[in-house]
Design a protein that fits this description.
Number of domains: 3
Largest sheet: 5 strands, mixed
Order of helices and strands: EEHHHHHHEHHEEEEHEEEEHEHEEHEHEH
Distance between the termini: 53 Å
Number of helices: 14
Protein name: REase associating with pPIWI RE domain-containing protein
Structural class: alpha+beta
Organism: Lentzea atacamensis
Strand content: 15-25%
Shape: globular
Strand order of the largest sheet: 12-13-14-15-16
Number of strands: 16
Radius of gyration: 22 Å
Amino acid sequence: MTSSTDDGAQTLDDVRVRYLVTRAALRAARTLIAPEAKPEKRLEILMECHGMMQAARGPGSPLSFGEFRRALKGDLAVLLPEGVTPLDLEGTHVVDQDGQVTEDAFDLDLEQEMLLRLLHKIGKTAAVVSDREFQSELDQETVFTLLRKHGEQAVYEAGRRDLIRCPAGSVNELADLRLPPLVADFYRDIPYDSAYRGWWFACPICRWPMRIAIRNNAGTTVGVARCWHTPHAEMGASYLFSLPTDSGAPRLLPELAPPRPSGREAVLHPDLGDVPTALPAEGHKALTRGIWRYTTIPGLPELALHDQLAARGVKVSLWPGLDAFDLLVEVGPKRGKKTSFKVDIKDYTSAMTLAALVHAQEGDRGGADWLVLPDHHGGHVPLLSGVCAKYDMQVTTASAFGEMVCEKAGVNWA
């Protein structure tokens, strides 16, 4: 595929085409459901998104504005031009049954952004890339750079822990965190699609504002609150609430949660605790979505695996060398040769995008020899194992890794 520019025709590879299609569809869908958008501004943004879609598809695959609008409610892969493999876009919808933008669409957009930016950095794509397109990825790079600024491991670790443990909270609570001022600026007002009449709810697992939707169910209108991270919602962070007749706060009722796993996976499985209570949006802030999704979310299994191994007497270091990788685990006698495991933990919705990232950087940039996935992504292990084996990396789930290490250390995991 080609795109005409002032400098001549440049090849747009499949990665960039999928990224542009996802980004255009996602932005258009968000514009359609944004309650505060004025009609003229809404039309302007939709036309920009349509133009981006046309640029991705090229002159050989025209798509009318009306077709673009209608396609936003269907399978995302339909928007791709002929000849481009859909991969994870197939079967993905941008808008769900509640008329809200889906979690998976957000994740695919951010993950494709990370891949395309890496390819651009290492010179494997000729596509012109603007900083504006990659703002989410740039935000995350800025945060990590600021945390590393003083070159002190303890300062970096404390700041990274705060971003994981406290992705949202009251202004007073956030002021007490050990974060550089410029990092604290990435806490913003509670998003409109996570609030209902000035109230919001923190996910009991990740503590970030849950998404809010109003659903018509058998003639009855009810509110729905569920974590933006699909695995958390599927673990039980999904609730219903009756719409208050006054300005009072809604009260959540939990939907039926799946049974807690047994055996080795029970060790790292999160405890939902009490049903979340409503918090006022005024006076509270939350991390930007990209930092929450790719710092807080993978950080939860990082901390959980670290803490559980340490509690069993295993020597384990968190983010050594200012985050060269996530965990350094050492097993062996007090005196003598130890077996070391350099671990990188990833939580990607798209196994194919993660595999492409590993391949593009020829393994792990920090030198990790183990890629560990959260238990809910256990189905990704076979695909990633085939790619990682080329770079002397092994792949497994967090619980399987914890059990293996404890067995070598001569202690019980579960």
